[in-house]
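Ticket 4471: requesting a sanity check on a complex prediction with zinc ion. Repro inputs:
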Amino acid sequence: MADGSGVTSPGGAERLAAVCTHLEEIRADLRSGPSEEVDLLERVLAAARDGGDIAGMISVLHAALQAGGDPLGLDGYTDHSGAIRSLRPAGISSARAELVYLCPEGRCARYWWPQATAPVPHCAISGSILRRERL
Ligand SMILES: [Zn+2]
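Returned structure tokens:
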């Protein structure tokens, strides 16, 4: 095990956000991997829907991605999706910080900035459209 990253996010909210945001990519990743772990992704989503403890399953999913040849696993996706705590930095441009869309269930740390040409995405966990929030 070469995982020296010192994971400190027990709820896995950021990794769950990666799942929520990049569901299709992660699914494709799992499909192309050596194991039949596509099912695992569905189990993670189901557990998240139920409000269960997903931290353990998220870790398994993370490991499965790594086993599939992606050394960063889920953390490779979290880099792109960012984290909720970076949502309100002091210097953020107010022009685009007025509205943000968040995970409707609050289960994951996903957020999405409104884009004129793009429809509001759905949460992969609840299946509902992201919740609009004022900053
Ligand atoms: Zn979500």
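Notes from triage: The pocket of zinc ion is lined by residues 20, 103, 107-108, 110, 123, 125 (CB under 6 Å). Leaving this open until the requester confirms.
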